[in-house]
Input
Amino acid sequence: MEQLEHDIKELIISALALEDIAPDDIDTTAPLFVKGLGLDSIDALELGLALQKRYGVNLAADSEQVRAHFASVRALAQFVTAQGKA
Output
């Protein structure tokens, strides 16, 4: 799981062009939106597309579920693993 979390951090950085951030700068359990990394809804769309391309995951239409999946890097890694895509 640690490797997947690191890979997702790298994906976040590359997909969102976060040039001044290294994977180790992103706390695995910190919120990705508002507090924590401070991403917004546009970032969520871009990250969702990147996750679909890289891992072939299917993001649910239920906004509450999507919000839960995008809560943190750890939540994203658990989601990818649960879909059997890691």
Remarks:
- The chain has one domain: 2-82.
